Backbone:
């Protein structure tokens, strides 16, 4: 494996890891704030009927407030993701390939663990 191949591999793995970190941040932020948003929308749905007493259309009021609440949810998610991104402490991960022959390079323990897991599974007999 040449240095140019190694550099390409490191760049590809780096992009993959960065993409996974971004996904994790976004997913955790949404999962935290989504339940709170749904609870607020449910409370709004229950209480919106009182708008009729104020001579306002409850459906129009519901749509307007739900839209505002969703915009606030998006702002909160952005803020949480940005805050966590700046607070994150990256750690260095070393990847050392295991050479199986002069031309083949295999990722360490990951491939070996998968092979061992597959060989340890009991085979089910089908009749």
Residues:
């Amino acid at each position: 494996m040449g240095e140019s191949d190694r550099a390409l591999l490191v760049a590809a793995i780096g992009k993959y890891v960065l993409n996974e970190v971004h996904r994790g941040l976004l997913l955790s932020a949404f999962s935290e704030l989504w339940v709170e948003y749904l609870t607020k929308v449910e409370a709004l749905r229950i209480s919106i009927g009182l708008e009729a007493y104020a001579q306002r259309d409850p459906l129009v009021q519901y749509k307007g407030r739900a839209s505002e609440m969703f915009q606030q949810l998006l702002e909160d998610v952005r803020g949480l993701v940005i805050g966590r991104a700046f607070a994150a402490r990256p750690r260095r991960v070393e990847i050392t390939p295991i050479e199986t022959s002069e031309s083949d390079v295999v990722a360490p323990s990951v491939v070996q663990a998968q092979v061992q897991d597959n060989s340890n599974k009991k085979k089910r007999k089908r009749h």
Residues 108-117 have pLDDT under 50 and may be disordered. The two ends are 48 Å apart (CA to CA).
